[in-house]
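ok trying again, last paste got cut off:
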Amino acid sequence: MKPICKKEYLELKPPGFGDTVADKDRILQALKPKYGDVYISMSTLKFYYKLLRNFDWELTVTMVHNSYSWEIIIIERGNTTDKNFAYAADLGSTTVIMQLVDLNSGNILGEESIVNHQATYGADILSRIFYVKDNDDHLKEIQQCTLSNFIELMDKLYSLTGISPAECGALIIGGNTTMIHFLFGIDPWFIFSTPYTPSFNRCEFISGRDIGLPFNGLVYCFPSVANYLGGDIISGLLTTDIHKRSELALYMDIGTNGEMILGNNEVMIGVAGAAGPALEGGISKQGMRASAGAVDSVRIVNNEMIITTIQNEKPIGICGSGIVDLLAEMLLEGWIDYSGRFVPGKSERIVLREGEYAVIYAWENESGSNEELLFSQTDILNFMDTKAAANTMVAFLLDELGIVPQEVKRIYMAGAFGTYINLESAITIGLYPDLPRERFVQIGNGSLKGACMLLKDEEELLAVESIVKNINYLQLGEAKDFLSKMYAAKFLPHTDFTLYPTVMENIKHRRCKEDSISNG
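nice, full thing came through this time. structure:
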């Protein structure tokens, strides 16, 4: 490993008559043969200078590679090189996750997560942005909420491992453009107003103390590319090696927003846009995030519905992965047609409620709320908008490079949705391209993994800069035939059946099997 944070033990000659080298210069001179010109800020020196004379000049310096040079950020008595720790974090708009990493071994010593405290000011990002617009006091509140996420997670990891923030040299953060603006107390309104350009896309390494965090280490946030293509995506890309390989690959992170990158080591193009709350269950009255009691998988066998829930609790709603399964299974069984419309009479679970058809995925006696759980025709049509948006983004990228889906050799699925979704179901409804299944790779939380990866190898800073430089960000508003592509994608799996050959074969096989059973 070549960790971004290093420790060096020094035994220095004490100053005396004839040797009047200043304390700061004495330390820097000792490090220069191995590390070149090392930097120490005046604020760090001020924090430690009174202690230096009590160390008998036997001390350990903690240094972080700040893109340009090694910077001293902690000075300790004696030899503490056996303890080298740092944090990796994903600053998500919904959830914030932090890992404590041992940079001597590379092991993850602990991981904690919390609901983003910003949620107090709105479940969605736009509500928070309107809350702080032209109001400095509100902006300070949101910034403090953002910082309190990290402070609370540091406390949790301290309780878990016994390792305090004072012992950690760095915090690497992956987060979208808006979240990083909030972190530094900068109004993100420009991101959402013409011409949709952020106040900044990158920030230098900055002392945790300077932004209100209780540790002396340096904070680094992955740079963003544009308003909707943030550092969390750059962090995720770092884990895929798209930027190192000649084969064409597609990176997809679909959630409330959809971010996609298509390319290889020669060219990368990116696009991003709102996907909506559908993939987190937010389109349905009884939709919910992936938590205890959420229906997370659905199967229909011999016209009978079989569901599972998170933590095996009684069902109280349905989350994104359950919705994708539900639609895929109903399409395969003929409960809904290619336009997503219910076919009455195909199942007793298809009922008329409040003037529209719906499917009951849990009867009253089965649900944890003692009421029937429904997914309505309106819910389906709303989901189709989200699915169509994701499908159209992929089509847009393919058109820009002038290639067909079969030329994409690897598809990386990032984020919580990409981790837990049933791949076959997602392809069945046209959310992902119909390609050989072995080409799909679930990478989980790419933002967090990339942050951890950078902690362990400071040379990845160069890769980050290369990725950002090589991405050509495309505005969806410039897409040719975007509306016609969207309309074509609002069918299951698509109006062009030739794009989904295995899906059409599965539909044919499933319905032939059903007919044979029905005919005895």
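cool. The CA atoms of residues 344 and 350 lie 6 Å apart. Residues 136-161 form the longest helix (26 residues).
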